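## Example pair
The file below holds two records. Each record gives the amino-acid sequence first, followed by its structure token line.
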Amino acid sequence: MFCGASDYVVLDYARKNKSILLTEDKDFGEWIFAHHEKEVSVILLRYLNSEFPEIIKTVSSLLNEFGDRLFGKFITIRKSRYRIREL
């Protein structure tokens, strides 16, 4: 849907639709913190291909535990751990 779209367009869509952006692209973090974005939520996945099944479990656990409280946060997920930062 957003293949080739700019980071701004993707973030704007997520903001307007109150969606959590799930991405592997570190550029979103740079954009959000450089532009002091507050009304968007991003989950950045950092993993090796062999860790993918564990990443899925971690994302699922995070969503189940925090749900709507993830809005306005930047979350980095690595194998079996995560870090949540306020925006």
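Second record, same layout:
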Amino acid sequence: MCAVDTPTRIRGALSRWSQLGLFESQKDGVVLSKRFAGKKRENSDMLADRLPGICRELVLAPEHCLPLWGAEEAGITADFVRGIAWLLAQDIYQFPTTWSDGAEAVEQRQITGRKTIIQNDVRWNGLRFWARYLGFATGDNVTFLIDPTGAIEAELAILFDDRSVISALDFVEKLGQRLPVLDFGAYRKEIEAALNQDSWKQPAPHHLSMSLSFALRRLELAGRISLEQQADAEHALSLTGRSYRTWKRFTHVRLAERAA
């Protein structure tokens, strides 16, 4: 399930993921934590399908990523959490795909003082790899797109629980609790508070970010959810499209059957 180039890398990977709680050491070697052990009749392919969600949970856990800032005191996954929260707050249609030819300049304009988000091209490449694996981006190194569709889709069953329809505000607030790097999430709020408001444009009032809007529209087109507007509803949210135009207004989200 894991492919690496050198034994040094596999030792480093096992050490870090053991710190995060994915693996446990035993006398005869390293095993998957009992917390994430395979279910009955689960083969390795099924476990591999679950693995991104397991890793996402561990990376976003407060005990692993907080505090978000600081060279020595920051959490062990703080670099990734800062980076992905920052990317998800951007204009996804205009954001550069390379570090030295654009992304670095955007960070320098938006972050002032002693705080940093990504720092260098090595961490930029690592961020993009893990963003894709954990469901916060799509594409490859050339067509990299900030897109949290995969991460959001994995949370749908939990968000709806035994309901088929929930209010738009309830949906987004609960999503921000499950994935705090998204709109209304605690980590996202902390990153946005550090951005230079002259260089970063936030969505209009009652509008979602471009990244969340794009993901919800993709899920609707795939038949996973439908975004509904009910006339008697008190609160409505709007999707933000390219060039910050209003894409669609909705008051409720309905869970649909998985598309064929």
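Notes on the second record: The longest helix spans residues 44-60. The chain has a mean pLDDT of 91.
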